[in-house]
Amino acid sequence: MNKKDSCGLHDLFGKNQNLQIFMKQLRAIAFLPPHLIEYFMPKLFEILPQIADVGDRLNLRKFIKYVKKTWIYGRLRPYWSQWLNCGPYTTNKVEGYNNRLHSHFDNKQHPPLSALIEYLQTIQNNYCRIRFEAIENESVKTTNPKHMNNKYQQRNKRLMNEMQQFGVECTILYNELSEYPTIDLCFEYINNIVNIFAETI
Q1: 142 inside domain
Q2: Helix-strand-coil percent breakdown of the chain, rounded to 5?
Q3: In this predicted structure, what is the pLDDT of residue 190?
Q4: Does residue 151 sit in the same domain as residue 182?
Q5: Statement to judge: residues 28 and 53 lie in one domain
Q6: pLDDT for residue 158
Q7: Residue 100 is part of which domain span?
Q8: pLDDT < 50: residue spans in the chain
Q9: Four-residue CA torsion sign, 161, 34, 45, 200
């Protein structure tokens, strides 16, 4: 989470192992069923690591306020959940495309709209020209998506298995997934998700 750096937690995060664990658990909450995120989040905040420095404590509070306002109760809440998502878990491809656009305009914050439209039309025209030439030369090739590294395929399978198992445990114990499982079961699940990601690095 880059926001932790802008909230002044970069140095503290580097040296405080409990804060590192907390941040990993915070990320893993996205793999809870959506209705359990709001239920579980206050429980996670109850075990916030103890921070001695007053400035660091204030920065941590600022970060928590941001997470609550943006991801738990805010406009991004519907997009955060990764429950039963089989991937991708990031927006790296979109971010890469946006970075290429941004660098084309010399990293200007707000290029003129006309310049952006002109550049997008150039990209489209180049793509169409290449496709038409390929059709004329009967050399049209279907492009397959880039093959995912085997370790990430295995990670995604393990994540899906873990999510399904958690869903089954909730269903068996509480008849319906809409019921709230115990906090211990949620913590066990969250830590399993954290471990799956840790083993893939």
Answers
A1: no
A2: 70, 0, 30
A3: 94
A4: yes
A5: yes
A6: 92
A7: 92-136
A8: none
A9: positive
H-helix segments, 87-149 = 92-104, 113-136
Same domain, 123 and 183: no
The alpha carbons of the chain give a radius of gyration, in whole angstroms, of 22
**Same domain, residue pair 126 and 155:** no
Question: Into how many domains does the chain fold?
Answer: 2
Q: Each residue of 104-139: pLDDT tens digit? A: 777 677 778 888 888 888 888 887 787 777 777 766
Per the domain annotation, does 168 fall within a domain?
yes
Residues 33, 177: contact at Cβ < 8 Å? yes
Tell me: do 10 and 67 sit in the same domain. Answer: yes
pLDDT of residue 15: 86
Sign for the CA dihedral angle at 176, 180, 185, 186 comes to positive
Residue 171 lies in a domain: yes
For 191, the 3-state DSSP assignment is helix
**Peptide bond just before 88 cis, omega within 30 deg:** yes
- Residue 60 CB neighbour total at 10 angstroms: 23
Q: What is the pTM of this model?
A: 0.68
Q: Is residue 159 situated within a structural domain?
A: yes
pLDDT of 139: 61
The pLDDT, as a whole number, for residue 146 is 63
Cβ neighbour number for residue 193 with a 10 Å cutoff: 23
